[in-house]
């Protein structure tokens, strides 16, 4: 039986807001919307490939970097004080 680590003292969901494209700024802190709310930090955004990269900051995968399609940002939530990207030029 595999038991995964978690943080019983993690912040409540109310401390975060649903992930959106404007949250994709290097340095923003967020977490995956999995059962244990795996914490991440955005480390890069690649507009050419339509991907962003996060570093896992806790649990078994701590230090791992994942590349994720920008359209999957809704699978995350971000700190309410997260920096927002500038809107697209007009």
Write a concise keyword list for the protein shown above.
6 strands, SH3 type barrels, 90 residues, mainly beta, globular, single chain, six-stranded antiparallel sheet
State the CATH topology.
Answer: SH3 type barrels
**Side-by-side strand order of the widest sheet:** 1-6-2-3-4-5
Helix content: under 10%
Largest sheet, if any? 6 strands, antiparallel
Looking at the overall shape, the CATH architecture is Roll
The count of domains is 1
**CA-based shape:** globular
SSE ordering: EEEEEE
Radius of gyration: 13 Å
Distance between the termini: 54 Å
List the total number of helices.
0
> What ranges have pLDDT less than 50 throughout 5 or more consecutive residues?
none
Number of strands: 6
The percent range for strand residues is 25-35%
Mean pLDDT: 93
Q: Structural class, judged by helices and strands?
A: mainly beta
């Amino acid at each position: 039986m595999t038991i995964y680590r978690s943080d019983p003292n993690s912040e409540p969901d109310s401390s975060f807001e649903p992930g959106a494209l404007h949250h994709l700024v290097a340095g923003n802190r967020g977490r995956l919307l999995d059962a244990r709310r795996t914490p991440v930090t955005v480390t890069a955004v690649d507009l050419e490939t339509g991907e962003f990269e996060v570093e896992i900051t806790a649990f078994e995968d701590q230090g791992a970097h994942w590349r994720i399609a920008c359209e999957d940002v809704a699978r995350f939530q971000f700190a309410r004080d997260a920096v927002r990207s500038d809107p697209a030029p007009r």
